[in-house]
Specification:
Length: 73
């Protein structure tokens, strides 16, 4: 799927504020070389996105309860 051209007055997809090309960041989600999603973000929303990504991608370091119930289908 070809990417739509971005102009200088396109808004941030997260907050809607105007963002110039020089300051914008584009986050793309691609699976098997097919683009699933793309978001144009202002610097503040991009920083928030990075923080959220890092928090969600950290491995779960909680101890495993050996007595927890395991369900196998």
């Amino acid at each position: 799927m070809p990417e739509a051209p971005v102009s200088d007055d396109d808004p941030c997809d997260a907050c809607g504020s105007a963002t110039t090309d020089a300051l914008s960041r584009t986050v793309r989600l691609t699976v098997d070389r097919s683009q699933i999603d793309a978001q144009r973000l202002c610097p503040e929303c991009f920083a928030d996105w990075i923080d959220r990504y890092q928090a969600e991608m950290q491995p779960d370091r909680s101890p495993v309860d050996p007595d927890s119930e395991i369900i196998v289908d």
